[in-house]
Amino acid sequence: MLLRSLHTVDFRNLRDVEYRPHPRVNVISGDNGQGKTNLLEAIFLLATQRSFRRNRIDELVRFGSDKAEVVASIRQADCERRLAVQIQTKPSRKIALCDGKTARNSDYFQGVHVVLFAPEDLLLPKGPPEDRRRFLDRAIWNTCPSYLDEVRIYEQVLRSRNAVLRSMMAATGTRRPLAIQPDGGVTVEVSGAAGSADVMLEVYSQQLAEAGARIIERRRHYLHTIAPQVEATFERISRSGLRASIEYHAKLRDSAVHSVSGRELVGIIAEQLERDQRRDRLRGFTHSGPHGDDVLVYLDGREAALHASQGQVRALVLALKITEIQHLFFLHGDPPVLLLDDVSSELDAQRNGYLFDFLRAMPSQVFITTTSPAFVKLDHDRLDVRMEGGGLVGTAES
Ligand SMILES: Nc1ncnc2c1ncn2[C@@H]1O[C@H](COP(=O)(O)OP(=O)(O)OP(=O)(O)O)[C@@H](O)[C@H]1O
Ligand SMILES: [Mg+2]
Fold it and tell me: Tell me: the pLDDT tens digits for 237-280?
């Protein structure tokens, strides 16, 4: 994929930016707080319809404005498409358009592959499991757009099951029967509906086990596929002789969860939900399932989160990201667009050297933000722009 042009209107501090990037290396420099990361976020939004900063979508609209728009022209193989994301604040709403029309996710995201590498990623092995799950889900989604819908279905069922559990908690206090709405969001007291919550819980537990099994299988499969390359890349970056390994950690008591799939896996999750039911009812939420799982990273069999040095953690993350990019290129035959948000300043000279060698060899379109463009050691096929107060000033091609 290639980003040919980008136009932002009232997107964060980017009031009205027109950008025609280079097909290879784009360096966006500027002082702190000028809007460099916002520009990457605009590209990320177009590619994913989400922010990478965990903001609510309407927080992307420029302060004082009630709508924002990001429009891009992208090229895939020999076809050109125009993607647009419009955000409104009142009411909070997002509209995604492909060639001027609303499109199904599967059409919109077809062939749109963007990989972000931000300073926060460098803490991944030591950060909370939620960050590792997000990293993993984003990487899988890039390989398979339908994964997004699978995750959404799981999250929807999880919310419904939790709503039933909460209603049961409330009912324990009143000892009065409850009826649960099908969306799981509302509970209504109705006489004669005793037991309906139990029935709903059973239905949602089965649905959750099925949706959860699909997610676990996908996550396990992805990590299993990339693990050998992560190990080899880590060795090339660190030259430490330490073996990097990575595995999915499903928090289910039955250890067979790591090896079985299909109906067997559904059965294991359903059993666990059944076993946890008493605890879930007491606390009002679902304890077990992929929403609580983790990705464990090891160095020579020891958990990196507990034992690895800062430099080793950075080399591990670099290996993970590089592998993710190579895997996407291999899978789609088309290099993903790379967004590097000021990562060079967080890496030492040797790791920066490795990263730039990699970027030189990978035929991706790259966007790199930095406060010091001279540190970006990529000299050819490069366009430099400067960001000042949310506007682009001055371009220089080399
Ligand atoms: N919704 C918004 N409306 C207007 N301005 C915003 C909005 N959200 C953030 N900003 C502004 O955007 C600026 C931050 O931009 P950004 O994070 O892109 O900076 P940066 O150039 O990447 O800086 P650094 O080098 O420190 O990372 C801040 O001045 C912030 O106040
Ligand atoms: Mg920034």
Answer: 999 999 999 999 998 877 777 788 899 999 999 999 999 999 99
Alpha helices by DSSP H, listed for 175-261, are: 196-238
Q: Ligand 1 within 6 A of 38 CB?
A: yes
Cβ density class 321-341: b for 16+ within 10 Å, e for less: bbbbbbbbbeeeebbbbbbbb
Q: Indicate whether residue 36 lines ligand 1 (CB < 6 A).
A: yes
In contact, 299 and 316? CB cutoff 8 Å: yes
The pTM assigned to this predicted structure is 0.91
Q: How far apart are CA 250 and CA 125, in angstroms?
A: 16
Q: Which atom of ligand 1 is nearest to the CA of 34?
A: 21
- Segment 77-119, tens digit of pLDDT: 889 999 999 999 999 999 999 999 998 888 899 899 999 999 8
10 C-alpha vs ligand 1 centroid, how far in Å? Answer: 12
Say if residue 21 is preceded by a cis peptide, omega within 30 of 0. Answer: no
Q: Which ligand 1 atom is nearest residue 371's CA?
A: 25
pLDDT attached to residue 344? 87
Q: How far is the CA of 127 from the centre of ligand 1 (A)?
A: 24
Question: Residue 178 gets which letter from DSSP?
Answer: E
pLDDT at 199 over 70: yes
Pick the atom of ligand 1 nearest to 35's CA. 18
Q: DSSP class of residue 294?
A: E
Q: CA-CA distance, 279 to 293, in Å (whole number)?
A: 18
Pocket mutation for ligand 1, best pick of 11, 12, 28 (most atoms within 8 Å of C-beta): 12
